[in-house]
Amino acid sequence: MPHTSIDPALFRPRAWWRNCHLQTISRGLMVNRTRTPWEPVHLATDYGDHLKLDILPAASKRPRARALILHGLTGCSNAPPTPRVSEILSRHHVECWALNLRGVDRKAPQVPRLYHAGCSEDLEAIFSQIPQDLPWSFVGLSMGGNLLLKWLGENPKRQILGAKALVISCPYDLADVSNNLERTFINRLYRAFLIHRLKTIVKPFSKRYPEVLSRQTIDKCRSFPDFDHHITGPLHGFDGSDDYWSRCSSTQFLSRITIPTTLMHAKDDPFQPLPPTWVKNPHLTWELHSHGGHLGFIEKWGRDWMAQRIVDFVLG
């Protein structure tokens, strides 16, 4: 089946779909109505545990390329639009890999660690074990985008066959995002929702490792400064939230990236309305849209422009 591409400069949602909050919330309401026939594989990390990747083989026995998709905060391989995108790409002879970061299955990890926006050492360990014989496309969604950009910028001399990257709705400055999520009533609702989701991830962890993280510490976290200062930071070797945000925000890594990277962002993103477009790097292409919210980019209900944009990018 031939693929019809869209113009990446022409995201034009229907009039009442231009509201950034409708765009943002609608993404979370989407569900994968079909069961994606993932093939799970577990790869070792440097910490002595394993991370699960879900693979959707290409429809043909000889794939033309591979794509690695990194989910956002509290997401997983089954969070939209990953299943739909992977199924379309599979039909066009692309093998899709979707990484599930530590703890997203709501089970206690094998080691006393979780995941965070800068855990690029896990991505490095994974990539050292996966095939390198075909061109790779990387897609980072929200927090997964921050993780991807940090990993790409940390080792700009890394050789990857035919590599290119697409990052969508990235939280480039983690401190700025944390502040933005406290500015308005609806932003505080986003923050409350995300903190609640994060707590469902860390509660099984605290049961297995009560000496590392207590239930009382989890219960008292009400904001990202709380969560990152008392949980993310101590668990992963950071000196509190400020140190974590400073060391893991992807803005500082953008100038060092050496593979073609498209940075797609909406100017009305309620999490990060001002991406760092001032960073100079000929390998970066900014794709800014007036509308789209955070990980929205929906033309109307049933018309997922973002999913098609990802497919176009990988196949292009």
Low-confidence stretches: none
Mean pLDDT: 93
The proportion of residues forming helix, as a percent range, comes to: 25-40%
Tally the beta strands.
Answer: 10
How many individual helices?
10
Please tell me how large the radius of gyration is: 19 Å
Main sheet: strands, sense, barrel: 8 strands, mixed
Give the SSE order as H and E letters. Answer: HEEEHEHEHEHHHHHEEEEH
The geometry reads as globular
Distance between the termini: 16 Å
Largest beta sheet: what is the strand line-up?
1-2-4-3-5-6-7-8
Write the layout of secondary structure elements.
Layout: H1 20-29, E1 39-44, E2 50-56, E3 65-70, H2 82-91, E4 94-100, H3 120-127, E5 136-141, H4 143-154, E6 164-168, H5 174-180, H6 185-208, H7 215-219, H8 224-235, H9 240-248, E7 261-266, E8 284-289, E9 298-300, E10 303-304, H10 305-315
Parallel strand pairs: 3-4, 3-5, 5-6, 6-7, 7-8
Antiparallel strand pairs: 1-2, 2-4, 9-10
